[in-house]
Amino acid sequence: MQQRVVALGAECDLLTEQEARAELLAQAPPADAPATVGWAPYVPVPEVLVLDPRAVSFRVAEFADLSDGRRIRLHAERGFTIGGGPDPWAGLTLDQLTDDVLNTVLPDDAEDTGEDHPWSWLAELLRVQGVDAGPEDLRGLPYAVEFSNRLRARVLDRP
């Protein structure tokens, strides 16, 4: 029986210095790989911070919940950073973060199309994972923003 998508959403989590460094190192080519003209990955230097210590970085992944109870990840390459003051956590709420997450998953042409999600792209990501759902099937589904336990605790434990 073909599973159907019953909900969509985005998961948001903190991105730590250690995690950011590990991601950059994972993307780096082997030392003996030939140089690629016009593109060079950033390879972090051990003593140099990758993330701005005056800011907080977040990663965002979108998911689909299926009728059989499974959750499948659609992509996980997006994120955002907030900062600018002495304490980037000051006054930060889950409602504010929800807005930031939703802005992060907006399609690039949202101003032109009026769409709040890249429905065709999400449908293609589902198709690649064996789930048949068209853009029109996805438009009316519930969309939830969820936060990791460590992020939720960090925001809610603030005075």
Secondary structure layout plus pairing:
Blueprint: E1 5-15, H1 17-27, E2 55-66, E3 71-83, H2 94-104, H3 110-113, H4 119-128, H5 135-139, E4 143-147, H6 149-156
Parallel strand pairs: 1-4
Antiparallel strand pairs: 1-2, 2-3
Widest sheet: strand ordering = 3-2-1-4
Tally of helical segments: 6
Series of secondary-structure elements, N-terminal to C-terminal: EHEEHHHHEH
The rough form would be described as globular
Strand content: 25-35%
Domain unit count? 2
Protein name: SUKH-4 immunity protein of toxin-antitoxin system
Describe the protein in words.
The structure is a single chain. The chain has 159 residues and is an alpha+beta fold. It folds into two domains: 5-15 and 56-156; 17-50, no CATH class. The protein is 31% helix and 26% strand. The protein has six helices and four strands; from the N terminus they run βαββααααβα. It has helices spanning 17-27, 94-104, 110-113, 119-128, 135-139, 149-156, and strands at 5-15, 55-66, 71-83, 143-147. The protein has a four-stranded mixed β-sheet. The chain is globular, with a radius of gyration of 18 Å. The mean pLDDT is 85. This is SUKH-4 immunity protein of toxin-antitoxin system.
